[in-house]
Amino acid sequence: MRNQRIISSTFLYLLSIIALVAFIFPFVLLIINSFKSNGEILTSPFALPEKLDFSQFIEVYNLMNFGVTFTNSFIVTTLSTFFIVFFSAMAAYHLVRRPSKFNKFFFTVLVASMVIPFQSLMIPLIYIYGAKLQLIDAIPIPLLIIFYLGFGSALSVFMFHGFIKAIPIEVEEAAKIDGCSTLQTFFLIVFPMLKPIAVTISILNVLWIWNDYLLPSLVLNHPDVYTMPVQMKVFNGTYMNNWELLIPAILLTVIPILVMYIIGQRSIINGVMQGSIK
């Protein structure tokens, strides 16, 4: 029995090491190739760079208009995630605590909408808001945030819905006996209890929105409002890619989200664990 446990522990340890290497290797490859020229990248992608030349990062920073594109990405990601979490939590609370036939039907339709691919909606969406209403040229970033709110709410409401059902109704009834209104009960009692699942939902949406290319590329038509993934298309040519600039650009795009994760990793891990326990 003891030998069996040792073998099992050793196997899990080796499996963890393999998984760690598999996840870290692409990022390490990205770092070492970000200091190479096109020739070095194509001929020896796994070798260390001959020298650490940061001039490519300076060129990428200028070509990407990094300050503007980073600000755009930060605004879009932050506001979209905030609105998704805020409105989805309220919607899920209403659907759980007001179980009418209409609410059940609405929740079913909302969940079913998750299976509809975005590609089937993007042409009519852009036609209506672009050609007809002319909103894409008028308010591109606010419109993009509204789109993210619409496309991100279904999954978020579904996740909040399951979590809220596990909250004892007696907690809310006690708050109402103490004189709390429905809004006060939600914001003062229920919403703080949703922190674990709210953190999980925030992570999913931040990763999705920050890295998304397709939707911003359809809505944002001017370089001044480009997000970072969209701006990287300046390094793609018709017949070839400028790898010595594209790879540093990818690294600069990844670093902010990586730093955010490192800073908030304790809250993120606790949120995921508590959410799974619930």
Distance between the termini: 34 Å
Named CATH topology: MetI-like fold
Helix content: over 70%
Number of continuous helical runs: 15
- What number of structural domains do the residues give? 1
Number of strands: 0
CATH class group: Mainly Alpha
- Quaternary structure of the protein: single chain
Output the helix-strand order.
HHHHHHHHHHHHHHH
Major β-sheet profile:
none
Beta-strand content? under 5%
Unreliable stretches: none
Mean pLDDT: 86
CATH architectural name: Orthogonal Bundle
- The CATH superfamily label reads MetI-like
Structural class from helices and strands?
mainly alpha
Any idea what the shape is?
globular
Secondary-structure blueprint:
Elements: H1 2-33, H2 38-43, H3 55-63, H4 66-97, H5 101-112, H6 122-132, H7 135-138, H8 140-165, H9 169-177, H10 182-193, H11 195-211, H12 214-219, H13 228-231, H14 243-263, H15 265-277
Short overview:
With 278 residues, this protein is mainly alpha-helical. The chain contains 15 helices and no strands.
Characterization of the model:
- By secondary structure, the protein is mainly α.
- The protein has a single domain (55-277), classed as Orthogonal Bundle (MetI-like fold).
- 77% of the residues lie in helices and 0% in strands.
- It contains 15 helices and no strands.
- Helix 3 crosses helix 14 (243-263) and helix 8 (140-165) runs antiparallel to helix 11 (195-211).
- The radius of gyration is 23 Å and the shape is globular.
- The protein starts with a helix and ends with a helix.
- The mean pLDDT is 86.
- It is found in: Cell membrane.
- The chain crosses the membrane at residues 12-32, 73-93, 105-129, 141-164, 185-210, 245-264.
- This is Raffinose/stachyose/melibiose transport system permease protein.
- Belongs to the binding-protein-dependent transport system permease family.
- Residues 70-264 form the ABC transmembrane type-1 domain.
